[in-house]
Amino acid sequence: MRPVSPWARVYVVCTALGAACCALPLPATHAPWGAVVLFAALCAGCEGLAGSRFAAGRTPEGAGVAGEPGGSPRWHTPVILAAAFLLPPPAAALVALPGALLTRVEQRPRWLRRVWRAGQLALAAWAASWAHWALDGRDAVLSSDFPYVLVTAGAAVVAFCLVLTVLDGGILVLAERVPVRSAWRGLFLRSLAPVAVHGLAGLMMAVLWRSPYGPVSALLVLLPMYVSWWVFAQYHRERAAHQATIRALVQAVDIKDGYTRGHSERVGQASMVIARELGMDDERAEVLRFAGILHDVGKLGVPTRLLRKDGPLTPEERRVIELHPEYGHEMVRGIGFLGEARSAILHHHERLDGSGYPYGLKGGQIPEFARVVAVADAFDAMTSTRSYRRARPVVAALEELERCAGAQFDPRMVEALVRGLARRGWHPVVTADETPLRGDPYPPAPPVSSTPPGHRKSFDGTRP
């Protein structure tokens, strides 16, 4: 993890101080201390349970200090919201603190992450409780005033998500260097649906808590939530296994063909830009990213001396290297979760005019994923430095892709990449330490090493 900037540390400290100020008026509220302690203990217990049973997989990409961009709900979220429905705002803020401070943290600095999470949740809980009480939600809960209680609970959920969104966006800007124009994009909507579900569970807990059956009956609400989280955790473990498989394959390719280290990750990222512009659903877009990352995995079957040859390839050597899509397809054919990505690995060197390889497919015969990866592959090749040339500016690379659209590339995929980069810019996750070309609105990201000249007949100068 990159060092946390001083401004990010100041931001975390200010968040923690704001949370402390929210909890300070607690003695004047005459809150039921027994309920406060019970809720706080339950919240801490839920967080401990989550840390021991569900702490699988790595921190989401780009999560940084926040750990969960968008305020992704945790095992204790219904408990915090139930406290917000029943307790005054200072008490609700206090309830969130023990669980957050005891949360399991894998990345350093651990104390900073715990303080951040505690302050963030305390402020969100305070806002949720304030919104709920401002609408007389507590009386609605006590009298089971349906459906008005749903209105007040909904307002609390929205306030909870808004605070998480505002704070998460700020930490992404300061700690993760995410551009301001995109830091908050989608955070609120991604958190609203899951938090709304947890809000309903919290509302059920609050109603049962005040029922004749007491707090014990409220705990029964957590049982179905526990089962759902267990299923969710199993999904994430499976997903983590998939990611580990892909990382191992990519690392093997990078070790074997050091000239293009980092190329695979950037092709996967460019493929995702195209996928978003094409309107692909999240599941297909993720498989397409896998296709981009693994498109050159077949190089593991090519002799290393050919991949690292300093001079031009002979026709026989070229034919051997041009077998790498078929090698790659054979390697991944048994990996079920790759789905459509397997056809992209096999056909990403096909061309619309039929002059590509390995089978010389034309136009619509080429799978959609392969047409996407072909564009992403050529784009990264042109915007990466080689031993015989500097990286092209992104604008020049896009112009070259447009020139070759219709013959070599699918015009729809090229247009999608142009639109996506105009909208989001090009900020590759894997870069090299080289100054971008002056005047380029989308600075290129050259890889660590380069490819010798004469290895390919096409315009981009890369190997087959």
Automatic annotation (TrEMBL):
Known Gene3D superfamilies for this protein? Hypothetical protein af1432
Task: Outline the extent of the HD-GYP domain.
Answer: 238-433
Bias (Pro residues) occurs at 441-450
User: In what residue span(s) does the HD domain sit?
Assistant: 260-382
In terms of NCBIfam families, this protein maps to: HDIG (TIGR00277)
Report TM segments: 6-26, 75-103, 115-135, 147-175, 187-209, 215-233
Q: Which InterPro entries match?
A: Cyclic_di-GMP/3'3'-cGAMP_PDE, HD/PDEase_dom, HD_domain, HD_GYP_dom, HDIG_dom
| Region of interest called Disordered, as start-end residue ranges on this chain | 432-464
Q: Which UniProt keywords apply?
A: Membrane, Transmembrane, Transmembrane helix
Keyword Repeat listed:
no
Pfam families found in the cross-reference section: HD_5
Specify the superkingdom. Answer: Bacteria
State what protein this is by name: HD-GYP domain-containing protein
